UniProtKB/TrEMBL annotation:
Top enzyme class: lyase
Pfam families attached to this UniProt entry: D-Glu_cyclase
Keyword Nucleotide-binding attached: no
Family according to the record: Belongs to the D-glutamate cyclase family.
Keywords attached to this entry: Lyase
Organism: Kocuria oceani
EC number: 4.2.1.-
Gene3D superfamilies in the cross-refs: PSTPO5379-like, PSTPO5379-like domain
InterPro entries xrefs: D-Glu_cyclase, Putative_hydro-lyase, UPF0317
The name this protein goes by in its record: Putative hydro-lyase ACFPCS_00260
Length: 267
């Protein structure tokens, strides 16, 4: 199956076809893919750390909204259809003993039977609703990965797990910020409303042109940087806390699920 040629083709693709492409070696950020279907963050830890990760998510629900948890060793589940968490993301990040251990296109060779997979809500899920309301998404329009930043705000720790809040940023026209807040607040399972508007220095972000993850975007005149809690947060905690082995999605390279977006929308 050939890769879709442009944004319209990526948007129209079904999740099963997208996962087939990623399984076949296509590496790409997934913003704008499979319109109408939810995307998810992935974090995988040994069973010995799973309760602490679940507690960390419960204590920090904005960055870590749990959509599904698989049993130890399981590689598929109800949000995945025929998918496999070891092969069906476009790119993975690997961590060992609190150190980044590179990226890879699948994790078959490092998989262990005691690993527990968490799927967490992703803000890519509500981007279609923002676009339908006429609010532009700079990273999609500019063909880059969404910018993400480590902040100076600590998450509430859980046992051995601790780390900073990570946020994603989207420039929003100043006169549409209230609309963006209203629209995204209807998606609490995928981070919900923004955590901060403007003034990046208040989050400890010194330079918007130098994101910690993803790519910088051009901020048009009359736009404000708007920050949402980001599902890379537990990966920052895994890194800071010295988990022996952990797997995550490479930032911006998400798990495309079979769940329709509307399932995560509230009135």
């Amino acid at each position: 199956m050939s890769a879709p040629a442009g944004p319209a083709q990526r948007s129209a693709l079904l999740p099963v076809r997208a996962r087939e492409l990623f399984r076949g070696g296509l590496v790409t950020p997934t913003a704008g893919w499979c319109d109408g279907f939810a995307q998810a963050n992935l974090v995988v830890v040994p069973r010995d750390w799973a309760f602490e990760l679940l507690l960390f998510a419960q204590r920090n629900p904005k960055p870590c909204p749990v959509l599904a948890v698989l049993d130890a060793g399981e590689v598929t589940g109800p949000v995945l259809g025929d998918g496999d968490v070891r092969t069906d993301l476009p790119l993975y990040s690997l961590y060992r003993e609190g150190e980044a251990a590179g990226t890879r296109e699948d994790v078959l060779d490092v998989w262990q039977d005691d690993l527990v997979t968490f799927a967490l809500g992703c803000s890519f899920t509500f981007e279609a609703a923002l676009q339908e309301a006429g609010i532009p998404m700079a990273h999609i329009d500019q063909g880059v990965n969404v910018p993400m930043y480590r902040t100076n705000l600590p998450c509430e720790p859980a046992g051995r797990l601790s780390g900073p809040l990570v946020v994603s940023m989207r420039p929003i026209p100043a006169d549409r910020v209230a609309d963006a807040v209203r629209i995204t607040s209807r998606y609490p399972a995928v981070h919900g409303a923004p955590v901060h508007v403007g003034a990046p220095g208040e989050l400890g972000i010194r330079d918007l042109s130098a994101p910690d993850y993803g790519d910088a975007v051009q901020i048009p005149a009359g736009h404000l940087p708007v920050f949402w809690a980001c599902g890379v947060t537990p990966q920052a905690a895994v890194l800071e806390s010295g988990v022996p082995v952990a797997i995550g999605h490479a930032p911006g390279h998400m798990l495309v699920t079979d769940v329709p977006n509307w399932r995560y929308q509230v009135p």
